[in-house]
Amino acid sequence: MMSLFEKINDELKAAMKARDKVKLEALRNIKKVMIEARAAKGAGSELTDDESLKIIAKLAKQGTDSAAIYKEQNRSELAEQEMAQVAVYETFLPKKLTGEELLKAVKIIVEKTGATSMKDMGKVMGVASKELAGKAEGSEIAARVKELLS
User: Fold this and answer.
1) Which of 17, 25, 46, 95 is packed most tightly, with the most Cβ within 10 A?
2) pLDDT band at 50, cuts 50/70/90?
3) Separation between Cα atoms, residue 58 and residue 79, nearest integer Å
4) The pTM is what?
5) 3-29 burial string, b = 16+ CB within 10 Å, else e?
6) CA pair distance 149, 64, nearest whole angstrom
């Protein structure tokens, strides 16, 4: 089975052939950060798909945050460029949960951990952050956990 890193390389070649500037730039960003992460792990290290997904999710979050700042500064063309790249990143990420799906998932985790009050928030967040990584923002997960435990 092809690793996410190999898939990104293939997509990069296709974007070059198609002369898709936005996709090319986004994929080059992903590849650059992945190569840096591999180097940090040590010579000859490969990234797991989980590690690769974390990198892509982080890039998507940074892009979304940057776009929000550009919007505040009335620099819509830069905001649009950022969001175009985020759209490319999101093609590699698991589908985001809807508000309702997230609430259901958090309810199951609360039951599984036996949490009953806000004192258990840390325990629930630990499990939820792992299980829902890439499927929801940490702040959204925390809000649902608070809602259910208070």
Assistant:
1) 25
2) confident
3) 17
4) 0.73
5) ebbeebeebbeebeeeeeeebbebbeb
6) 29
